[in-house]
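#onboarding

Welcome to the new folks! Below is a worked example of what a typical request in this channel looks like: someone posts a single protein sequence, and someone else replies with the predicted structure as tokens. Don't worry about understanding the tokens yet, we'll cover that in week two.

Example request:
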Amino acid sequence: MKKLQRWCAHAFRLNRILPKLAPSCRKTGELAERIGRRLNAGESLADAVEVECATMPAAYRATVVAGSQGGQLASAIESVVDSASRVEQLRRITGVALLYPMMVSIVAVVLMT
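Example response:
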């Protein structure tokens, strides 16, 4: 259960990132509760993460499992959250960056017709 508590220590950041990583989990608490139930039933954290976080990228799941097995679960989760935050930020920046050329193209087409 201590592993789950450490895992939930980063919930303030996970609340924002988790819905993007695992669309089926809209709330961090729901995911933590389901994983907790599996842990209480005797499943390993690796198995619980594989089942409950199936919609997350495999690299993120593997990082959590490796962190758990290596005794560095909190830092592994922090690493996953940081990576997901950077990916989210990159997607947002890319979307904004593509907006200008698209607008210029639309204006050019309108002016030429």
